[in-house]
Design a protein that fits this description.
By secondary structure, the chain is α/β, with parallel strands linked by helices. It is built from 21 helices and 14 strands. 39% of the residues lie in helices and 9% in strands. Bound molecules: pyridoxal-5'-phosphate (PLP).
């Protein structure tokens, strides 16, 4: 099993999924759970859960209840005796601070987890017993085992790999996790300039609520009167986001930006349906759009039509007018990223919205680049009808491990009634896109804290610094590498696309070589060949200081000099620091060194590197091979 295969959305409208931000971090945590407990541990835990469930079933039957499911693992569906009503049981349960599942057909559902203790079992059984007019129940201990029908028993081995069998103490597990952690370059080492990803600081003060049990131990379906704090937080955060976006309503259901795109398009369809225009099926998408846009449009059942870019990277306004006119009877929506995925503020943005509206379409603004807008402008002002926000980009939720994310959508007033509803929220299932009413609500306190602590002034300042930092780098690199696109005012937005194609023509050095060489300096590569092939996209974010930006500049300038050394023949095209990068420790300290440049040039290319050297784990790998083949590395799972 591979936890992450290559992102499908890169294939744009040919993708079969729109997933970009996923739940990879949570999957990794689940993986560690299995590593720690191993097959025997999991079997023991499961056996205890089942035994506890079986003892509950037996005691309930004694007390006059009926268990409807004959075979079960941890969940019972309970039929109440004739003299006990669901309401009676519920009243007693709530007095005793317990929530059960109440079926509309009258049964009650419970599930037992591994946190069960004899005391909790006593509490649970006492509740049922009191409801049946009987006495409290005292359970001494949880039986160690229960019989599982032979038909359902697993007989084959599982989790047999070494990794599930050697880290069964906390000390060992801690060291194993730390060992893996040390293989990763993170924001704790240096700037991660991945354009389009917004790898900004996730401040400790914002992350604190994640370790508060009051924030984390609540079920998404808990009765609302038991979740007053969360309801207040969600309500206030919704108000802040409305103010920030200039919109009238917000839904927190989507768990990622791409899920927001899907939800936004469904909202548009429901609205158009309501005015008798539900068969509009064309979505115009600029060529510069992020791959999730066309992928989401297809997932939502639309046909994307691509609008060309002009030579400056802007939407080609003529092409937009022609395509909007051509499709006027079927035009459902226009998806536009602002500032664009080319990193520039398009000055024609309001005119674009007008054109789409004139032909009966709705404007979906991809708000992933909202960190270049907050406090300065907003999608409502621009004239858009819907947008998603990547709370895990602009609003400080960490997403380095791949997720979880939160991609709420904001909409203009006419679309509010068609926002995703949820059975557990208001009894309606119109446009439900998530199994929980407010998506990954458990991470909303991060964004709430970020907005509250930054305040109006802080948020606008963050936007300004993000734009300033990008323009600082653009000014410095303009005369060497070159900047691919600039806006009408000669500036970039919050990110920039670095030209690497000229260098390739003169020296054979590619954008990939530059990225790999940056690792020798202790920098994570910028975004490679996206959205323009043969380039690097750099987004410094507002989190980086001038000192860190200058280190990055020093690294890139040193690399520029190294490219010149290849160009002027000081080193051959086949054997130089760039094509051989990155240089891991095992190569640098090997007994043999056959390259024409010294080891010190390879490992310590700038003075600042000596202070904080990050040793990369492996030398150059075959990217294309790795993309196409699932490689299980049995030799070194550590
Ligand atoms: C990141 C991004 C998306 C997708 O968001 P996810 O949360 O990763 O699904 C969409 N559009 C743009 C411009 C982005 O940068």
């Amino acid at each position: 099993m591979a936890l992450q295969t290559r992102e499908q959305h890169i294939k744009r409208e040919k993708a079969t999924s729109n997933i970009c931000t996923s739940q990879a971090l949570l999957a990794t945590m689940a993986g560690f759970y299995a590593v720690y407990h191993g097959s025997e541990g999991l079997r023991r835990i499961a056996g205890r859960i089942h035994a506890a469930t079986a003892s509950v079933a037996a005691k309930l039957i004694e007390a006059g209840y009926k268990v409807e499911n004959e075979q079960y693992f941890d969940t019972l569906k309970i039929v109440l005796p004739a003299n006990v009503s669901q309401q009676q049981l519920k009243t007693i349960a709530e007095q005793r601070e317990m929530n059960f599942r109440y079926f509309e057909t009258g049964e009650v559902g419970i599930s037992i987890g591994e946190g069960i203790t004899a005391d909790k079992l006593s509490d649970l059984l006492t509740t049922f017993s009191l409801a049946a007019g009987k006495e409290g129940v005292e359970v001494e201990n949880i039986p160690a085992k229960a019989i599982i029908a032979d038909t359902f028993k697993r007989k084959s081995g599982y989790l047999q790999h070494e990794v599930f069998n050697i880290y069964h103490t906390e000390t060992e597990l801690m060291r194993y996790i730390k060992r893996l952690d040390r293989k990763d370059i993170s924001l704790a080492h240096s700037m991660i300039s991945l354009g389009s990803c917004t790898m900004k600081l996730n401040a400790a003060s914002e992350m604190l609520p994640l370790s508060m049990s009051a924030m984390q131990n609540i079920h998404p379906f808990a009765p609302k009167d038991q979740a007053a704090g969360y309801m207040q937080l969600i309500g206030e955060l919704g108000d802040y986001l409305k103010e920030i976006t200039g919109f009238a309503g917000v839904s927190f259901q989507p768990n990622s930006g791409a899920a927001g795109e899907y939800a936004g398009l469904m909202t548009i369809r429901a609205y158009q349906d309501s005015i008798g225009q539900g068969d509009r099926n064309i979505v115009l998408i600029p060529a510069s759009a992020h791959g999730t846009n066309p992928a989401s449009a297809v997932q939502a059942g639309y046909t994307p039509v691509i609008v060309a870019s002009d030579e400056l990277g802007n939407v080609d306004m003529n092409d937009l007018k022609v395509k909007a006119e051509q499709n006027k009877d079927n035009l459902a929506a226009y998806m536009i990223t602002y500032p664009s995925t080319h990193g520039i503020f398009e000055t024609d943005i309001r005119e674009m919205c007008d054109i789409i509206h004139q032909y009966g379409g709705q404007v979906y603004m991809d708000g992933a680049n909202m960190n270049a807008q907050v406090g300065l402008t907003n999608p409502g002002f621009i004239g858009a009808d819907v947008c998603h926000l990547n709370l895990h980009k602009t609003f400080a939720i960490p997403h380095g491990g791949g997720g979880p994310g939160e991609g709420p959508i904001g909409v203009a007033a006419h679309l509010v009634p068609f926002l995703p509803h949820h059975q557990e929220m208001d009894g309606s299932s119109l446009n439900t896109v998530s199994s929980s009413p407010y998506g990954s609500a458990g991470i909303l306190p991060i964004t709430y804290g970020y907005i509250r602590m930054m305040g109006e002034e802080g948020l606008s300042r963050a936007t300004k610094i993000a734009i300033l930092n990008a323009n600082y780098l653009a000014e410095i690199f303009k005369d060497t590498y070159g900047i691919v696109y600039r806006g009408k005012m000669g500036r970039v937005g919050h990110e920039l696309i670095l030209e690497c194609r000229n260098v390739k023509d003169t020296s054979g050095i590619t954008e990939g070589d530059i990225s790999k060489r940056l690792m020798d300096f202790g920098f994570h590569a910028p975004t490679l060949s996206f959205p323009v092939h043969g380039t690097l996209m750099i987004e410094p974010t507002e989190s980086e200081s001038l000192a860190e930006l200058d280190k990055f500049v020093e690294a890139m300038n040193t690399i520029w000099d190294e490219i010149k050394e290849v160009e002027n023949g000081a080193y051959s095209k086949e054997d130089n620091v760039l094509v051989n990068a990155p240089h891991p420790e095992y190569e640098i300290c090997a007994d043999e060194w056959a390259h024409p440049y010294p080891r010190s040039k390879a490992a310590y290319p700038a003075a600042f590197v000596k202070d904080n050297k990050f040793w990369i784990n492996v030398a150059r790998i075959d990217n294309a091979y790795g993309d196409r083949n699932l490689i299980s590395c049995l030799c070194d799972m550590g």
